[in-house]
Design a protein that fits this description.
343 residues, 4-stranded antiparallel β-sheet, single chain, alpha+beta
Length: 343
C-alpha cells in the first residue's frame, strides 16, 4: 500500500491517506509513512485532511439529511431540547447567537452531544460535568444515526492518535494508555443559517477565532465551507474536499509536546451563501480526570510562554490539574448564563 500526501487546491493543507492506520493488518512501513506525514502536518500547520478513514459515506449523508430536517423546525419546537434542560451534562440545543467566542455571539445554532451515559452511571450520579444522557430530538432515526456516527468517528480518533504517537517516536498506544482509554468525546452539530444579522447585534463571524481545547478535533463539513486556518503564512481557507475529514490538534497536545505540535487558531466565516451550512465537529479529548503532562524527553520540544501570541493570551504550558478543569474554564465563557444556572 502506498501512502500519498497531496496538497489541498486552496489552503495548501496536506491531505493524508490514513488507510494504513485503519487497516489492522497494514505493515509497519505503511503505518510509519502515514505517521511521518501526520507529524509534518502537525509541526507545520496543526491542520490536515484525512481520507480513507473508514467512516461510511452513507452514514454521513444520513446524519446530514436528518440534521437538515431538525434545523428546519421552528425555533420554539427546537427549544424543547434546549441546553438548560440538559443540566450539568451540557447537552441539547442552543439557538442562533446563543454561543459566544471572545465575548461575541457566533452566528450559528447547534446541538451539543457526547458519550451517551444513563442517569444511573456513576459519573452522572456523582454530578460530573459534561457527562450524562443526551437530549435527542424526536426525529425518526436521528438518535441511532448520531450514536452510530459518534462511535465510528471516535474509532478514527483512536487511530489518528496512534499515528500521532508514532510520529513523535512513541509507542502507538502512548495516548490510549495515559489519557484516552476512555476518552472524553464531545460532539457538536452546527447549523450556520444564511440569514442577516439583526441591527444592533455584533456577530461578525460564524465562529470567531479560537483554538480547540483537547487533543484532536475531527470535522466533517458540507459542500458550502467557511473554515479558515491561521497558518504561519497567514489566514487560508480550508475548503470541503469530498471523502475527507479535517483534523486539527488542540491545546492539550500543544502542552504535551512542549509546543512542538501547536494548536492552531481557526475561525468560520458568517454564512452568506443563500443556503444553510452544516458542520459536524467531534472533539476527541483526554479523560475528564486525566492530568495532562508534558511528554518527557521529546526531541525538539521547547516549552515557552507564548501567551502574547495566542488569541486568548493564555499560556497552555502553565496549566496544571485535571483536563476537565481546563475544559470547564473554557466552556463556561462560551455559555456564561448556562454556567451560572448549572455549574
Amino acid at each position: 500500500m502506498t501512502t500519498e500526501t497531496v496538497s489541498s487546491p486552496v489552503a495548501g493543507l496536506p491531505v493524508i491517506d490514513i488507510a494504513a492506520l485503519v487497516n489492522p493488518v497494514a505493515d509497519d512501513a505503511a503505518r510509519a509513512a502515514v505517521a511521518h506525514a501526520i507529524g509534518s502536518a502537525c509541526r507545520e500547520h496543526g491542520f490536515f485532511y484525512i481520507r480513507h478513514h473508514g467512516v461510511p459515506q452513507e452514514l454521513i449523508d444520513r446524519l446530514h439529511a436528518l440534521s437538515q430536517a431538525f434545523f428546519s423546525w421552528p425555533e420554539e419546537r427546537k427549544m424543547q431540547w434546549r441546553m438548560a434542560l440538559g443540566g450539568r451534562a451540557w447537552r441539547g440545543y442552543f439557538k442562533v447567537g446563543g454561543e459566544l467566542t471572545s465575548g461575541l455571539p457566533d452566528w450559528k445554532e447547534g446541538l451539543y452531544l457526547g458519550t451517551e451515559l444513563a442517569a444511573e452511571h456513576p459519573l452522572v450520579q456523582a454530578g460530573t460535568p459534561v457527562h450524562g444522557p443526551n437530549l435527542f430530538p424526536e426525529l425518526e432515526g436521528y438518535r441511532e444515526t448520531i450514536l452510530q456516527y459518534m462511535d465510528a468517528v471516535t474509532q478514527v480518533g483512536h487511530r489518528v492518535m496512534e499515528g500521532i504517537a508514532l510520529s513523535l517516536g512513541l509507542p502507538a498506544g502512548y495516548f490510549s494508555q495515559r489519557y484516552t482509554a476512555d476518552p472524553l468525546v464531545l460532539f457538536r452539530i452546527f447549523n450556520y443559517p444564511s440569514i442577516d444579522v439583526p441591527a444592533g447585534v455584533d456577530a461578525p463571524w460564524g465562529v470567531g477565532e479560537h483554538t480547540d481545547y483537547g487533543l484532536l478535533t475531527i470535522l466533517y463539513q458540507d459542500r458550502i465551507g467557511g473554515l479558515s486556518v491561521h497558518t504561519p503564512g497567514g489566514w487560508v481557507d480550508a475548503p470541503p474536499l469530498p471523502g475527507t475529514f479535517v483534523c486539527n490538534i488542540g491545546d492539550m497536545l500543544d502542552r504535551m509536546t512542549g509546543g512542538l505540535y501547536k494548536s492552531t487558531p481557526h475561525r468560520v466565516r458568517r454564512n452568506t451563501s443563500g443556503t444553510d451550512r452544516l458542520s459536524f465537529p467531534l472533539f476527541f479529548d483526554p479523560n475528564f480526570e486525566a492530568r495532562v503532562q508534558r511528554i518527557e524527553g521529546l526531541a525538539g520540544a521547547r516549552v515557552r510562554d507564548d501567551s502574547s501570541e495566542r488569541w486568548d493570551k493564555a499560556n497552555v504550558h502553565a496549566f496544571n490539574g485535571r483536563y476537565g478543569d481546563y475544559l470547564l474554564a473554557k466552556v463556561s465563557k462560551v455559555f456564561p448564563q448556562l454556567k451560572d444556572e448549572v455549574l
